[in-house]
Amino acid sequence: MSAAIDPLVGAEQVATFFKAVMLKQPNLNISEAVVNYQPGLIGSAHGRVIAVVATQITMPRISNIWAIRNPEKLRLWHNELPEGDDHVLPIA
Q1: I want to staple 43 with a disulfide (CB 3.0 to 4.6 A). Which of 8, 51, 52, 86 is the partner?
Q2: Model pLDDT for residues 22-60, shown as the tens digit of each residue
Q3: What gap in Å lies between CA 81 and CA 92, rounded to an integer?
Q4: Four-residue CA torsion sign, 55, 57, 61, 64
Q5: pLDDT-based confidence at 91, cuts 50/70/90?
Q6: Can you list the positions of beta strands (E) in the chain?
Q7: Beta strand 38-45 pairing with 48-58
Q8: How far apart are CA 57 and CA 24, in angstroms?
Q9: Which of 74, 16, 73, 66 is nearest to 45 (CA)?
Q10: What are phi and psi of 6, to 5 degrees?
Q11: HSE on the CB side for 39, CA within 13 Å?
Q12: How many angstroms separate the Cα of 77 from the Cα of each of 6, 60, 61, 63, 82?
């Protein structure tokens, strides 16, 4: 997964970025998850978590998206987590 250097603003920029990421990593698996008590995504490849996407919902839309790729911050996600549980991921 790549990183955006500058913040992406608007649905079109975000969609274009995520589409490019998916095209560059055809082995990337995306799973839905609850991250920080909000809808989120887990990106994995070859059985390893390589990214967690956390969202902030301001009804009726997603107002912020954080993609975390730092291996230190993803340590929790490398362990097998109970399915259906909420997981809190420090973003700072």
Answers
A1: 51
A2: 888 888 888 898 888 889 999 888 888 888 999 998 989
A3: 22
A4: negative
A5: very low
A6: 29-35, 38-45, 48-58, 61-68
A7: antiparallel
A8: 28
A9: 74
A10: -105, 150
A11: 9
A12: 26, 29, 26, 24, 11
Q: Enter the pTM of the model.
A: 0.70
Identify which of 77, 80, 78, 81 has the alpha carbon closest to the alpha carbon of residue 90. Answer: 77
61-68/38-45 β-pairing: unpaired
Amino acid occupying residue 14: V
Q: Tell me, what's the pLDDT at 3?
A: 62
- Number of Cβ within 10 Å of residue 35's Cβ equals 22
Contact 87, 79 (CB under 8 A): no
Task: Give the CA distances from residue 31 to residues 12, 37, 68, in Å, rounded to whole numbers and listed in that order.
Answer: 22, 16, 15
